[in-house]
Amino acid sequence: MKIDAVVNTLSRLVAFDTVSSNSNIELIQWVADRLAEHGIEAMVQPGSEPGKANLFATIGPAGIPGVMLAGHSDVVPVAGQQWTSDPFTLTARDSRLYGRGSADMKGFIACVLEMAPRFAAAKLVQPVHIALSYNEETNMDGMRVLAKYLAQSPVRPAACVIGEPTSMQVVVANKGAAIFRCRVQGFSVHSSLRDQGVSAVEVAAEIICYVNRLQERLLGAGRNDGFEFPHTSVHVGRIEGGTAHNITARECTFLLEIRALPGVQAAQLLAEIRNHCEQVLLPPLLRISEECAIEFETIADTPGLDETGNQALADAFMPLCGCPDRHRVSFGTEGGILQEIGVPTIVCGPGEIRVAHQPDEYVETAQLEACMEFLESLCQRLETTPCA
Ligand SMILES: [Zn+2]
User: CA 258 to CA 237: how far, in whole Å?
Assistant: First the structure.
């Protein structure tokens, strides 16, 4: 077991400050150079914005659909968080390795890189692909760009494992993750003349009440008991608007989040909300001022991972990572995007999701060891039998 080497690689990866708002190019180039040292050629794919790139590499026989091991290179911000040690310096305390991204999800990437020479030396009957993406923590653009490329490739991967932290359990389904910004424009007057003005704050409150009623309805609409909260959730987490107690607010914005059960379209729920705004809320406001408006902007909309279609893959992988049963999680992953291009996908990686995004994020050394054992089992399996 080369766990010291894995820890060393992880410390290099953590040292790249790849918070989603920053460039990830240095990390990607470092990985590409490292793979090149082992004779593995990697494609660095430019992203949809400057300073961003994906990486895609194939190890093993060319021209055959392989098993893709995927990880996102970006991490969430540390601003405003109280860390015991520098978040970008991997620090060992007890049996834990602390650092931003140690669990989510540079730990998995470190294991995959450490196994790459082993994969390269093995006589694989089915290739392994390594995929690194950007912006997973914001709008998932990186995987969208990569998925577009893969969908047009002559040989697209046969299956994918995304190494998000699941404590090495096999996850077969996750909810979608959609974020919308609603901007209400009212009409400003002195509040003593309130009948001549429109408070954007009050209109936003009406929309949010409608969102709450929608949630009530969704409780009766369908459930999937595999999830801790077994329904689609709609939630308003941030609101901003108004200037003073005696001025009807000209502007109010809020963020609406929809975590849709697999198979439920967030955009369709948004269409319902929008329809209510246009048909019911807006007409009386426009009679007061033509300036009034209610607009919705999509910040992110990622489909859920649906377990129909990945059962055979789960069956193949559960023995490899010693996981006795299938799990479902409520956090978003890039899995739904890959499923859309016909690549069966499961989620399985080292570390715990509850420490992800938190101050003092850590991964247990034992989790990295378990991940290395899993990758070794995968390698041995691929020396004899394809996985998908
Ligand atoms: Zn993640």
Answer: 11
Is residue 363 within 8 A of residue 101, CB to CB? The reply is no
CATH of the domain at 336: 3.40.630.10
Structural domain of 349:
3-174+304-384
Domain count within the chain: 2
- Looking at the annotation, which residues are catalytic? 74, 136
71 Cα to the center of ligand 1, angstroms: 8
Of the residues 302, 325, 353, the one at which a domain ends: 302
pLDDT, tens digit (0-9, with 9 covering 90-100), for 9-30: 999 999 999 999 999 999 999 9
3 state SS for the chain: CCHHHHHHHHHHHHHCCCECCCCCHHHHHHHHHHHHHCCCCEEEEECCCCCCEEEEEEECCCCCCCEEEEEECCECCCCCCCCCCCCCCCEEECCEEECCCHHHHHHHHHHHHHHHHHHHHCCCCCCEEEEEECCCCCCCHHHHHHHHHHHHCCCCCCEEEECCCCCCCCEEEECCEEEEEEEEECECCEHHHHHHCECHHHHHHHHHHHHHHHHHHHHCCCCCCCCCCCCCEEEEEEEEECCCCCECCCEEEEEEEEECCCCCCHHHHHHHHHHHHHHHHHHHHHHHCCCCEEEEEEEEEECCECCCCCHHHHHHHCCCCCCCCCEEECCCCCHHHHHHCCCCEEECCCCCHHHCCCCCCEEEHHHHHHHHHHHHHHHHHHHHCCCC
Judgement on whether residues 316 and 271 belong to the same structural domain of the protein: no
**Cα–Cα distance measured from residue 99 to residue 359, given in angstroms and rounded to the nearest whole number:** 9
Q: Can you give the pTM of this predicted structure? A: 0.89
Give residue 248 CA to ligand 1 midpoint distance, Å.
42
Q: Extract the tokens encoding 293.
A: 């408006």
Q: Determine the distance separating the centroid of ligand 1 and the alpha carbon of 191, expressed in angstroms.
A: 47
CA 5 – ligand 1 centroid, Å: 23
Q: What does the pLDDT look like over 150-203, one tens digit per residue?
A: 999 998 999 999 999 999 999 999 999 999 999 999 999 999 999 999 999 999
